[in-house]
TrEMBL record:
Region (Disordered), start-end ranges: 14-37
Keyword check for Transport: no
Protein name: TNF receptor-associated factor 5
Keywords: Cytoplasm, Metal-binding, Receptor, Repeat, Zinc, Zinc-finger
Main location group: cytoplasm
Pfam families per UniProt: zf-C3HC4, zf-TRAF
Domain TRAF-type, first and last residues per copy: 146-199
Zinc finger (TRAF-type): 146-199
RING-type domain mapped to chain residues: 61-102
Length: 396
């Protein structure tokens, strides 16, 4: 890294002068400094600058590595851009700001504007920033002037609402014929208006557009310009014409009304004709309903006695059912009795057989030749025998 000491030597006079001014009013330099100077306008393109000759190291800022803009020289002899020096002072460590090249302390009171370097740098030749489209070569301090008229400089269309960006050489055509937000004169009143509003203006408010006469005659009148006076004039001149129009309109309305009345009358006739058969049908239906009601009454009258009979029959049927169930019970009882009878007659048969055997035995005994008297010693023998025959239990 070279220093600016050689420059200091060559330009000692001017440097000393500026040093005095910086020292005498340090706060002014630090707060306003080079604001508005050509250097401050180049800050944004500082690193895009292309110099015709290679930039000398001594003109490269050790802080931002760009060409030094508005050089400020420290006591160590190094120069920095004005805005880079501001940065050094603001972001310094607690021990105080130091030169980034050699670590020398930066004392604001000893820093001065290096007008000698400033002059040399301002005269360096630089290509236009629109190179290669623009081949102009200018000195650095003239670059901003050139850019303000360079035909290749990119510009924003300045019509409100348009975001197009074009080179200066194309801007004029865009503004006058292709920008959708351009201003054009109204074809009727020549008032300049944004293109998008002209149609609405012509339809609703352009004073020179002709509109129909408010009395609906075929004539046209300008919309606003002296409108009232012109309408009055026209109305006075065309009063007969307007009266005729009113008369014609009234006649037409009257004809329409008569036609409507006729149409209504014929509609009414048609409706009446349709209603008549309906009324006839209704009376027929009423007659049918009366007949049906009579028939219903007769039928219910004829049914009356039959219903009573039916009721009696049902009662007697109930009685019969009752009797049948009683008979069933009796039959069951009869069955039991029959069984008893069978059992008794069986027993009776057994007794009769036993009796028969006894009788035979007796006859055998009688026929046997004992002393007959022993047998007949049984008391009441003949009575007991009779009882046996009748079925009583044997007592022998
Ligand atoms: Zn230094
Ligand atoms: Zn710098
Ligand atoms: Zn240019
Ligand atoms: Zn535009
Ligand atoms: Zn107009
Ligand atoms: Zn009219």
């Amino acid at each position: 890294m070279a220093t600016a000491h050689s420059n200091l030597g060559r330009c000692i006079e001017s440097s000393l002068q500026s040093q005095d001014s910086v020292r005498s009013d340090e706060s002014r330099v630090r707060s306003t400094g080079p604001m508005g100077s050509w250097e401050s306008e180049l800050t944004s393109i500082q690193h895009a600058l292309k110099f015709v000759l290679a930039l000398k190291d001594e003109f490269v800022c050790p802080v931002c590595r760009g060409v030094v803009l508005n050089p400020q020289q420290n006591s160590c002899g190094h120069i920095y851009c004005f805005h880079c020096l501001q940065g050094l002072l603001e972001m310094s460590p607690p021990s105080g700001p130091v030169c980034p090249v050699d670590g020398a302390v930066v004392t604001p009171a000893e820093v001065f504007q290096d007008n000698c370097c400033k002059r040399e740098i301002s005269n360096l030749e630089v290509y236009c920033t629109n190179f290669p489209a623009c081949t102009s070569v200018v000195t650095l301090h003239r670059l901003q002037d050139h850019l303000s008229s360079c035909p290749y400089e990119q510009l924003q269309c300045f019509n409100v609402g348009c975001r197009a960006a074009l080179q200066r050489r194309h801007l004029q055509e865009h503004l006058s014929s292709t920008c959708p937000h351009r201003t054009e004169p109204c074809p009727h009143c020549q008032q300049p208006l944004p293109l998008s509003l002209i149609q609405d203006h012509v339809l609703t408010s352009c004073p020179d557009v002709e509109v129909h006469c408010p009395s609906s005659c075929s004539q046209k009148l300008p919309r606003h310009k002296g409108q009232r006076a012109r309408v009055k004039l026209h109305e006075d001149a065309a009063v007969n014409h307007h009266m005729l129009l009113v008369l014609k309109s009234n006649t037409h309305l009257e004809q329409q009304r008569q036609q409507e009345v006729q149409t209504d009358g014929s509609l009414l006739d048609g409706l009446q004709q349709e209603v008549r058969p309906l009324l006839q049908q209704t009376s027929n239906h009423e007659r049918i309903i009366c007949t049906a009601q009579l028939e219903v009454q007769q039928v219910s009258r004829a049914l009356g006695p039959g219903l009573e009979e039916l009721e009696q029959l049902r009662k007697s049927l109930d009685a019969v059912i009752q009797e049948v169930s009683e008979t069933e019970a009796l039959k069951e009882h009869l069955g039991t009795l029959e069984e008893n009878l069978k059992r008794h007659s069986g027993l009776l048969d057994l007794h009769a057989a036993q009796l028969h055997r006894n009788k035979q035995h007796l006859q055998e005994l009688e026929a046997t030749s004992y002393d007959g008297r022993l047998i007949w010693k049984i008391d009441d023998f003949s009575r007991r025998r009779d009882a046996e025959v009748r079925g009583q239990r044997r007592r022998v």
